[in-house]
Amino acid sequence: MDFGSLVLSPIKSTDINDLFQVCQDDNLRKFLMEGMEMSMDDCEQLIASNDLFLTKNPIGLYLVRLNDKTIGYGGFKETFPQSENVDFMYALTGEFFGKGLGSEIAQRLLGLYKNSGSPKKITAVVNAENKASIRILEKNNFIHQGKAPGELSHLEYYINAKNP
C-alpha cells in the first residue's frame, strides 16, 4: 500500500465531525473503547482534554487521513492522572486493518514524539486480544510490564524501552 498520501494532523475543534465519524466504527471501538459508544459530546470532551494536555505537553492527538479520508486517530494523552508518563495510542477504522497502516502510523507518531523533546516515558495499554497492536508495540521497542494499574487492570501495560 502506498503511504505517501498518509497525513497526520493535530486534532482541533473543527475536526469534531471527522472524529465522531471515525469513532462510530465498530472495529475501532472493539479494541480502543471496548465496544463503548462514542457520542458527539464524548468527542468534544476528547478534543477538550487534548487541548488541556497540550498546555503541559509538546505533543498530543492527531487525526489520520489517507487520500483525504479520515481513517483513524492516534497520538499521546494522559491515561493515568498525575503520571510522569505519557500514553501512546493509535486507532484505525476496520476497513484499514491488516494493511500495514498501524505500523506506519505508530512509527510516524513515535518520530514526532522523539522530535518534540518531551522527557516523559511513553507507555501504552492494550487489550490482550489485539494481537496486531501488540506486535506493533513490540516492533517499536515497547516491553510488556504486566497488567495496567487501577481501573485499566484488565488491559496489558507496556513501556517504551528507548524513551527518553
From TrEMBL:
It holds the Pfam family Acetyltransf_3. Residues 6-164 form the N-acetyltransferase domain. GO terms for molecular function: acyltransferase activity, transferring groups other than amino-acyl groups. It comes from the Bacteria. This is N-acetyltransferase domain-containing protein. The lineage of its organism: Bacteria, Pseudomonadati, Bdellovibrionota, Bdellovibrionia, Bdellovibrionales.
